[in-house]
Structures are given as C-alpha cells and as structure tokens.
Amino acid sequence: MTELYPFTPSGPTRRSTLRAAGGGALLLGLGLAGCRSAVSNTSSSPQGASAAPHRGGVLNVAVNADFTPALLFAQSGQSLQQRLIYNTLTRYDDDLRPKPELATSWTYAKDGRSITLRLRDDVTFHNGREFTADDVVFAVKNLQNPVRAAQLRSTAATITGFEKRGDHELVLKLAHPVNNLFDLFEFMIITDPESVEDAVAGKKFIGTGPFKLKKWSPGSGLSLTRNDAYWQPGRPYLDGVELRVIAQADALISSLRSGQSQLSFDVPGKSIGVVKSESGLTISDYDTGAGAIYLGVNTTVAPLNDRTVRQALARAVDRDRLVAQTLGGYGLASAAPWPKSSPAFTEAHRTHYTHDPAKARALLKSAGHSRLDLPMLHIALPGETAIAESIQYDLKQIGVHVTLQPTDGATAQKKLISQGMPALWSMGHGFAQVQPSTLAVSAYPFNEAKNTSRYRSAEYTEVVQEAWTKPETDTAAANALHEKISSILLDEAFLIDLVVRGQLQVSAARLHGVTLNKFSYLNLDNAYLV
Amino acid sequence: MRTYLIRRLPSALLVLLAASFLIFTILRLVPGDPATTLAGPDADAATVAAIRGRLGLDAPLLTQYAHWIGSLLTGDLGPSYAIGGQTADLIGDGLGATTELTVAALVFVIVLGTAFGVLGATSRSRWLTAAVRVITTAALAVPPFVSGVLLVLLFAVALPVLPPGGRVAFLTAPDLAVQYLVLPALCLALPSAAVLGRYLKDGIERGLAEDYIRTATAAGIAPRRLLWRHTLPNALPPVVTLLGMQVGNLLGGAVLVEAIFAWPGLGQLAEQGLQRRDYPVVQDLLLLLVAVFVLVQLLTDLVHAWLDPRIRWE
What we know:
Chain A has three domains: 1-30 and 88-194, Dipeptide-binding Protein, domain 1; 40-86 and 209-281 and 506-530, D-Maltodextrin-Binding Protein, domain 2 (3-Layer(aba) Sandwich); 291-501, Dipeptide-binding Protein, domain 3 (Roll), CATH 3.10.105.10. By secondary structure, chain A is of the alpha+beta class. In chain A, strand 14, helix 14 and strand 15 (400-407) form a beta-alpha-beta unit. Chain A is built from 18 helices and 21 strands. Chain A has helices at 14-32, 38-42, 82-85, 133-144, 153-157, 181-187, 196-200, 249-257, 272-276, 307-316, 319-326, 347-350, 357-366, 382-396, 409-417, 436-442, 458-469, 475-492, and strands at residues 58-63, 90-92, 98-100, 103-108, 114-119, 159-164, 169-174, 211-217, 221-226, 240-245, 263-264, 281-297, 332-333, 372-379, 400-407, 424-429, 495-508, 511-512, 515-516, 522-523, 528-529. The model of chain A is unreliable at 1-12 and 25-33 (pLDDT under 50). Chain B has two domains: 32-76, no CATH class; 88-271, MetI-like fold, CATH 1.10.3720.10. Chain B has helices spanning 2-29, 34-39, 45-55, 61-73, 87-122, 126-141, 144-158, 174-208, 211-218, 223-260, 266-275, 279-307, 309-312. In chain B, helix 5 (87-122) runs parallel beside helix 12 (279-307), helix 6 crosses helix 8 and helix 8 crosses helix 10 (223-260). The interface between A and B is large, with 64 and 76 residues.
C-alpha cells in the first residue's frame, strides 16, 4: 500500500476518526430504532376516554408569544396563564353580571363609596398558606403601584381605605363612586404577597389557581401541573397544561393540524380557511369584543385637525371587506368600539359610518381637499400589514394617498405612549368589552386626559368622568352617558373604529369546557379531553 | 501550530472588542427601548421614566457600555430587562438548543453532502447523476421557509410520523429528542449539503484524474479502494474549510428554521430580545455569535492543518 504522507501520527488518524464518526452515527441510529414515538407522545389523553367529563390528560396550548413576567399585572399580548395560576375576586357572565370567585358575595353602600366583600374561607395558595383579606388588600395596593403598569390602575387608585372584619370579610372604601369596580375584580389576579417580586422577575408564581407552575422556560413556554388542593372540589380535570410558544403562524397551524397542540387563540384570520377544513378542529368565536381594530388620527396634523376630514376617512373604509378578507370572516364591522355584549352597544352606532366613498369624497371636497398624501404607521406583522394595506386601498379611492410605515412593535408602542404617531396609524385596542367607562379611563388611545390622537375636549372629559363616577345602580343615567360618549367618539372621529373582534378559539374536537374571561384569561376549571 | 494559534489570538480579541462597540452602538440607534415595552401599552411618561431609571438607561452611553463590558469580564451577565430570568440562563438554554440543532444539521450536511459528492462524481448511471444534480439544485434553490413548510406538511401533517415543531432536550429523552430534531436539522442542512456535495464532486473528479490514480489503477488497485482511501482523503482539506464556513451559514440559517419549527434556540431568543429591546440579551447574544464565528474560523484552520501536513509544516 502507498502511504500518501510519510509520517506516523501519534493520535487518532484521519481514517480512524472518520470511521469512528460513521460508526457512532450508525450505532445511534440503530439504538434509536424502535423507540417511543414523539408524535403519539405529544397528544396525551385520559385513559378510557368517553364524552363525559373526567380526570386526566395534558392540554397543549399553542401561543404565538411567551408572556412577560414584568407585565404580570397588566394586560399584555398573552394573558392566558393568568387564570390558570391565579384566581380573581369575581368573574362576569355573558351579560356582564359579576359572579363569585374568591369573593362569595358583596354589598355596595348606598352612596357608592364603599363595598363590602365576603371572601372564601377554604382557599389556600400553592405554597399551602391560607388566603385571607390581607391578600386582597395587597392585590389592590400592588395595582396602585405605577411600576406594575396595570391598565386599571386609575380604578384601583380610587380605593383609599381598607377595613378588615375578620380574615374573610373586607370593606373597600372609595375616594369617589366608580362604576367599573367589578372590571377591576375580574382583572386583578390574587398573588401571594411574599413572592410577588419573584413573580415579576419570572422566578416563582404562587397563586390559588387550578394549576401550579412546574417550569417556565423563557421563549419556550410554561409547563403547569394540576393543583390537587384546588378549592373547587374535583377540579381541574386536566393533569396539566403546556403553553408552548410557536411564533410562526404556519408552524402553529401545523401543530394544531397534527394534533400536537389542542388549543390556540392565535390563528391569524387569513389562515382560518385552512383550519376550517380540518375535521378534528373546531372554531369558536368568543363574542367578548376583547379587541378592536381602529384607524388612529393625529388631530394636530393638518388637515386632520378638521373634523370633516376625519369623518370622510371614517366613511371611506369598507369594514365588511376588512372582516371578510383579512379576518377570515370573524369580527363585527362597526364604527363604534362596543361589542354586542356591551351596555353601550347600539346598532345605530355600529352602522354610523358605512362604506360610502362618494359621500367621503364630498366631505373631503367640502373641507377644501381633493387629494391628500398622508403617512400611516402599522405594526410590521403579516396580519397587521394586511389590515393596513386594506385601509390604504380604501382611502386611495377617495383621493387620500397613504404611505405605509411598517414599524416593529416596540417602536410603535413607544410612539403610542409618547404621542409620537404620524398622521395616521392602524392598531388594535381593548377594554370596550367591560364597563364602557373603563375604555375612556384605562385604554390609552381613548383616554380623556391624554391620548395618542392629541385630542382634548372639555365636553369629552366631563362626560367620561361622569360616566366613570356614576354609581352603577342608576342604569338609565348610565345609558344616557354611554350614549353621549359614543356620540362624541363618532362625531369627533379621533379614533375611527373599524372592526370589533372577539377571541377566536381553535381547538381539537376532543377538548371541551374551555372558557375565557373578559380579559382573555384562560379558564380550564371545567375543561377535559376525551 | 501553537505559535500559529498564539499569533492569531490578539486579532481575534480585537475583532471581539470592535464587535462589542458596534453591537452596543447600533442597538442604541434602533428606535424604541425596553422601558416602553415594560411600561405596557397604557403607561404614562412618569412610569416610563421610572423604569428607565431603574434599568440604568438614563446613564450616559459610555457609562452604560463600560458597565456592560465590566460585567462581561466578571462573568455576570445580569438579568434580562424584558423577557425575564437571568441573561446567562436564557443564553445557556438557547445555546444548548441551537448547538443541538446545528450539530444535527452538520451531521446531515456531512452525510448528505458526501453522498451527493461521491454519487455525483462516480456513478455510471446517467439517471442517478441527473437525479443528484436535480436534488442538489433544488436543495440550493428552495429557501428554508419553503422547504420547512413542505417537510412539515409531508412528515407531520400528511403522514404523520414526525412532530411538526417543539423540542425535547437531548439529555432528557434522546429517543424523542432525535425525532424532534430530524425535520429542523434536515431543513437547515439541505442547502449546505448541496454546496458541500458539489464541491466534493469537483474535488473527487479532479483527484480521479491525477497521475498517481492512473498509476494505481494500472497497478490493479480496486476502484472502491482508490476512491475511499486515496482520492477522498485528498479532496477533504478544502472541503473542511468549506464546512467551517457552512457552520456559520447553519448558525445564521437557524434563526429562520427555529421560527418555522418552534425550536427554542438562540435565533428565537435573538428575535424576542430584539422585539422587546432587551439590550442585555441581544448584546450578549450577538457578541457570543461573533465569538463563535471567530472560534469556528480558528478551529477550521487548525483542522485544515491537521488534514494537510503541508500547512502544519509551514
């Protein structure tokens, strides 16, 4: 044999190394042959499954973003885990009537300046400590802390005094009456005070909820296991929940179609058609109106400081086409922010602005314009871009030529908070799904004191403050105020609402009993797999 | 070889220092900041300012830079601003996942690339040669976001034999981990395997045309022995250099592939960090990637020298 190179290596030769690598790979392959299947291993289901509720199984939920522990007390893009680990004091039914959870009953004072809560006495935290009135006091004070960035901080701040009557009865004293206190009670998760700093740092999450944290892997998701000491007897049915982050829409849909995940709320509208054709998947639309798409207008930019021009824009957008083409047919085309479940909803407000390009052009002309060139910011995600492009097309039909400014979420948020938006922007808002006054005091785009549109009006401020501080017992007066708020929003058109959206749930047909609260907290107390 | 290595170290350190400055500066030029992300969508300016102060973002930029480098030198990467957890843990987890993916992809690159190269250069079947050419062209031309979706549709949805995404750590359950690895690693490997295959094919063809091979053939040495023991080893050194460069490509491509297959690696972490302007995570991660590139380049040169004694004797 001919040696190519005349040396004698002291270590492993090239040939032996290559052989070893090849042999190793072969051995690995042989060793793994006949192993467990990752496909069948992912969709765990209980033994002896029948259609009736029963114990067992792990639910895999596909989410498109991980949650942010620092925003644990704020509503963020992903709030599903909130009601899995924690409980709230009350929860709304479909008609916006509060129902007991950790609070069993409540009594409002006649003057609306205090409320007495009676609390469950059979609840313990995941660390075994008993839940008492002190935990509610802490929860309220915690939300009053600006660093928690809680959207309902203004409502929490109205609670200025606490009077404990034993461990399970508490009087909350208010600086002034507010009519959205039960929004706060549904929003405010009850945490263990001692570990709250660990919670916002992502280290420890201790609540009283149906599931306990097993592991949080940042970027990958949450692994939760059944709380055997849960205060609801026999609940939850599930042994565990896995919230898996699957950022890419196609991958998320593949995960649902292959059965690897059994639940998701993050399927984009344009992909709903694919999901509809899958026999093993079902689609449910929660009519909570937890989200809405709007066209924002900077009222300090000429000629958008002219209300007539803003009203022209409001008439130019084809809301029905937006629902059909970009949202897969799910959503309510509406000129007002309110979902059907809101006490402020009226059909007249919903259809106040319908698609009427001729009238829009006439309005523009009456304001002295035939052509406008305006920039419009939108978040550079596929769904948001499709919405922006749809608006751009509609506005072009009336002579408003829009230059799109695709922007990442962090920058858009900074511009939103700092009132740095260009002439137009398209985004989403929430908080119209609960008491109407909450929208104007808690959702920044609608805030009467300071909003992104830079819109100020003494009348708007007065109406909003009155609506917020009116005792909730006076329904007729409250409705009159809702009417006034809607009229101002529609006439002034500083935010042009386009579509009210609920939460679109895609789930495996074998999953039952899933619900969401008004703030999109996932409730799996009664959920089971068959 | 040791002198060679020592000679190259200062330049590698200089590259790292320059990269750290560039990374820090460019990141600060990007609009948005972690404070507004953390403040939530309805925060007021006072809340944003309070958070900015708490994170130390109100300090002069040079102070912030010095603080970062100082922390790095002491091995303390600090907490993540927005994602949560310690930066070192986040990067550690992501690094483990990306390393798994990259190594698995590298195995695919080597196996498939060698198969493409050897078959392309030695097969006497015109059909087989044409098939190899078509496959390598397709593997090069089809971007991972298309091949990834196709692989998922075929192997995870239509058949389904492999999971469409997610990860089980290799040390936890190797049998499951391999199944989770196959599709993303294959998707990531295909373009590099095609490049390697074509390069290797040319190398083998050139080798087979050498005089000593003709002499050996005349001496009656079997063609298979000639290929595997003489031609292939001589074609390997430049291929190893190419393979080193492909490691860089694999690391770069992992960002996209990790998104398609929900693989919680460094790519996903970088994307999340950037989206939330999580400066510590993004800075440390990018610097780490630069360090890996520098290291891979060094290692490639060393392996090249090991395979080719002429370089080692220089």
